[in-house]
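YM 10:42: Terminase small subunit sequence, as discussed on the call
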Amino acid sequence: MTAATRKVRSGLTEKQQRFVENLLGGLQPIDAYVEAYKPKMTRRSASYRARDLLNHPRIIAAMAEAQEAARERRVVSLETVTDLLLEAAELARQREQPGALTGAAVALAKLHGLMDAPPSTTNTETLTGEALEAEFRSVMVALGIQPPDDLAEAVLTSSMHPRSSFDRARHCRGV
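YM 10:58: structure's back
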């Protein structure tokens, strides 16, 4: 996009646009100002000018627009990661790897906020194996993953006989 296009589209001057881009790139306001404007003044004066720019309505609007665009990109990223984890879960199911299936289900649950809350300190009830299995099945179903019929047995078998790192590496390479 050319400088003329940026000015027309955003209503910012070329230097104001560079200031915004510098801020979005992670620079502090004073450094963003100095980079964009190349002023011949003290840093203290430049700091005041940077503060004034941060309060400029067009700068505020440009920053809000950039933040909204970043949020939209994040949603696409969430969808992409979800799709990849669902593929991993399906592959684990096809290869009969309950540990990998469990890992994909847990990752999906965390990604979608189903496992963010810490355990309640007031609830002293301990889930039985059956209740825990039922809860895990419901999470898998909610995520679109069909749990295997022998979920508890498969997970227990997998956890009781962990592979050595050598076996895991050989298995991943298909040796």
